[in-house]
Design goal:
The complex is a heterodimer of chains A (about 350) and B (about 425). With about 350 residues, chain A is mainly α. Chain A contains 15 helices and 2 strands. Chain A has a single domain, classed as ABC transporter involved in vitamin B12 uptake, BtuC. In chain A, strands 1-2 form a two-stranded antiparallel sheet. Chain A starts with a helix and ends with a helix. Helix content of chain B is about 45%, strand content about 20%. Chain B is built from 13 helices and 14 strands. In chain B, strand 4, helix 4 and strand 5 form a beta-alpha-beta unit. The chains are: A mainly alpha (about 350), B alpha/beta (about 425).
């Protein structure tokens, strides 16, 4: 609670300078959210469970971008490329090599870490909008790369690959959707805890030092090049794991699923959730999954325009995203308690 | 404990009695979820937004057509509720929307969803759930696979069947032709090339050169030059609109005048022929299966009169130049026919059974002589096309309606021998 007040006291202009304690939720709130996530699937239809799974998966991908942008201050519009690499790694390993789906996740993570790290190396020389453009190029190139002839034997080319959905193990009496949800939830929690600890660690402080002032950071002895590429690598790895889970949940991978639209959606999710506020990732994911559906419900022909208006309202009313809303809620609750 | 057991027994007895009674009362009426005495719920997924949003016209026309059917009393007294969602042409979103339709809206079937990779994404799911994925709006030939996917059926002529028709034409008109093929390096191009070779059968050696291009190439000039150098005198251009126009232009530029066949995909006058040049496009060949909504030759046609009346009354904002409008009308009409055939047995199984029983059904906007025929082992409803030649400012149909079925191709081959 005090952490939240601290932020407000510092003023609204300071999006970039998020104190590290304010990047997470309080213990009480975390437990309530966790309990809700654990219990909810028991009461809803399989389709809703599927949507909740997708919520967690996109939440992970937004979280990854949040570490990169909110943590180390680098922009990326290329997250869809890492997502695609993760998805394809899992699909190819599962369908061509019959590897267990759970084992493909770490493999996808490692491959994407390497991919992100290597991409981060040359991209280091760029900053701000130039870096955003370089990653943008990566995102536009990825669907075409996946269609390449010599890869077609593995990727299935434009036709894509169908992925088999895993059954619940040990004969557990739950549907495939429910099992996959809990599986995703465990992975998401593990990565969330890892991310929180990463940002609280020495490396996390180095990220934030670079974000706040690169020159000062290097003067303090932070290896700027190393930590920037590291942030890229970690972000890519988490995005890749999200992609893997996405491939299993959707049961299909095709180049058309991983276009620049996905990268922009993830970016949008991060902004709506609040840059640098990790719990906001889930809120951002909810925005990019559900708001287009709401917009479509309002007007089919103008769904894009309605979505734009809703987005505009969010940015206008709560420019700092879900984090700001959470702080306002907290203040309100505090006031009510005093009365 | 015994009390509980007794109550359970009584309840199950009552339940059995109820089902028995309702079974007797309903007589032949049987329903799966999505159908009732008053309503049939139909799902649909279209790219209303995103890169393929031009196809959204198909969904809007279908919706208007079902409104017309409802206004005229529905199907055997049941109103159609058409639930159409947007997937933005993204396969991941298609899966979400399909699951929403099946599990939340509980539709009887999903009808006319658009796109090859989008429909591929849900094919397995639909077949596992045993929900019809009926009249898929995509030209891939994979939708005709009743053995592996008995719940999925295509509608329009596949790229392969169109190519087989060109093969027939070439064998008949120019039996000693040297064919040069330029094809787009994706599922569309490959489906097509395979169809062409299947159609030529033993005479596949007539193809002197097959050359592919990628959509990422800015221009395909050098491929056209290569085909000319191979001394081809029939040029089959399996290209999407932009590249079809480029090929037309380049061939004229280098003074190459083969028999030029372009795929139906690129037969748009405004999108391909005019940009390439009307003069150099005279005599170009292609094929069609629907009537052209902007062609005055159909003004007196009964089917098209009905179509124009429908547009005036239920969809006045639709652009009749848009091929999607003609397409959506005919597809919706086919679905209504199947549902009528189902009678009071509106189960998913019966829907597929009736859909596989269409005989000589002719929607209003298909070319005269082209009919829809299906069978339990034939899930390709439209397999006929008619050749057309570009003359003056428009396409002119010529010759008979040609069927693409392979057996007749073989018999033609035997006749030649």
């Amino acid at each position: 609670m005090s952490a939240a007040e601290e932020v407000v006291a510092e003023g609204h202009e300071a999006v970039e300078a998020v104190p590290k304690r304010a990047m997470t939720l309080g213990t009480g709130t975390s437990l309530v959210v966790l309990a809700a996530l654990l219990i909810a699937p028991v009461f809803v239809k399989n389709f809703i469970i599927f949507q909740m799974t997708m919520l967690l998966i996109y939440g992970l991908a937004v979280l990854a971008l949040n570490i990169l942008t909110g943590g180390s201050g680098q922009f990326s519009l290329g997250q869809s490329a890492f997502y695609a690499v993760g998805a394809y790694t899992t699909a190819v390993l599962m369908e061509h090599f019959n590897i267990n789906y759970a084992l493909t996740l770490p493999i996808a993570g490692v491959i994407c870490f390497g991919f992100g790290y290597l991409f981060g190396k040359p991209a280091l020389r760029l900053s701000g909008v130039y870096l955003a453009l370089a990653t943008f190029a990566l995102a536009t190139a990825m669907p075409q790369l996946l269609k390449l002839n010599f890869l077609e034997h593995w990727t299935g080319g434009v036709q894509g690959l169908v992925v088999t959905k895993p059954d619940a193990p040990f004969g557990l009496p739950m549907s495939q959707d429910m099992w996959l949800y809990y599986f995703t939830l465990v992975v998401t929690l593990a990565i969330y805890i890892f991310s929180v600890n990463l940002l609280r660690s020495r490396s996390g402080r180095a990220f934030m030092a670079i974000r706040d002032n690169e020159i000062a950071a290097s003067a303090m002895g932070v290896d700027v090049a190393l930590y920037k590429t590291l942030a890229f690598g970690v972000s890519a790895a988490i995005t890749g794991i999200a992609g893997s889970l996405g491939a299993i949940a959707v049961q299909f991978v095709a180049p058309d699923s991983y276009t620049i639209t996905l990268a922009i959606s993830l970016f949008l999710g991060m902004v709506v959730g609040g840059v640098g506020w990790l719990p906001g990732s889930i809120v951002g994911a909810a925005f990019i999954i559900f708001v287009p559906n709401i917009a479509e419900g309002i007007s089919k022909g103008l769904s894009g325009a309605v979505f734009g208006v809703l987005l505009f309202l969010v940015i206008y009313l709560v420019p700092h995203g879900a984090r700001q809303a959470a702080i306002l809620g907290h203040q309100l609750a505090g006031k009510l308690r005093k009365n | 404990m015994t009390a509980v057991r007794f109550r359970l027994a009584a309840m199950s007895a009552a339940l059995a009695l109820c089902t028995a009674m309702s079974g007797a009362a309903l007589a032949q009426k049987t329903y799966d979820s999505g159908a009732s005495d008053t309503e049939i719920r139909i799902g649909n997924i279209m790219p209303y937004s995103g890169p393929a949003s031009a196809y959204g016209a198909i969904g809007r026309t279908e919706e208007a057509y079902f409104n017309k059917v409802n206004a005229e009393g529905g199907i055997n007294g049941r109103k159609i509720k058409f639930i159409s969602y947007d997937d933005g042409y993204s396969p991941a979103k298609t899966v979400e929307q399909a699951r929403k339709l099946v599990e939340s809206d509980e539709v009887l079937l999903i009808f006319g969803s658009l796109g090859t990779s989008t429909n591929s994404a849900i094919r397995k799911y639909m077949n596992e759930k045993k929900v019809p994925q009926l009249f898929v709006a995509s030209g891939a030939s994979k939708w005709n696979d009743p053995k592996q996917y008995p719940w999925t059926m295509g509608w329009q002529p596949s790229y392969a069947s169109e190519a087989r028709i060109y093969a027939k034409y070439i064998m008949k008109e120019q039996p000693d032709a040297k064919i040069g093929v330029l094809y787009q390096n994706d599922d569309f191009g490959k489906d097509y090339l395979k169809g062409l070779k299947d159609g030529l059968g033993a005479k596949a050696s007539m193809i002197v050169l097959e050359d592919s291009y990628d959509t990422s190439e800015p221009a395909i000039d050098e491929h056209v030059v290569k085909l000319k150098a191979a001394r081809a005198d029939v040029f089959v251009s399996v290209t999407t609109p932009k590249f079809a126009a480029q090929a037309l232009k380049k061939a004229a530029e280098i003074g190459w005048h083969p028999v030029h066949i372009i795929s139906n995909v690129s037969a748009s006058v405004g999108g391909v022929i005019e940009p390439a040049g009307l003069e150099i496009s005279q005599g170009v060949l292609s094929s069609a299966y629907t009537k052209d909504g902007s062609d005055p030759q159909w003004n007196a046609d009964d089917g098209m009169k009905k179509f124009y009346n429908f547009l005036a009354q239920y969809d006045p904002k639709a652009n009749k130049l848009d091929a999607g409008v003609v397409f959506g009308y005919a597809a919706a009409q086919t679905l209504v026919k199947v549902l009528q055939m189902c009678g009071d047995d509106l189960t998913r199984e019966n829907v597929m059974k009736q859909a596989a029983k269409l005989k000589d059904f002719a929607p209003d906007t298909l070319l005269p002589g082209i009919t829809i025929n299906t069978a339990p082992d034939d899930f390709a409803p439209i397999e006929q096309l008619q050749m057309m030649r570009f003359k003056g400012k428009g396409w002119e149909l010529f010759g008979d309606v040609i069927s693409s079925e392979l057996n007749s191709a073989h018999s033609a081959l035997h006749n030649q021998k």
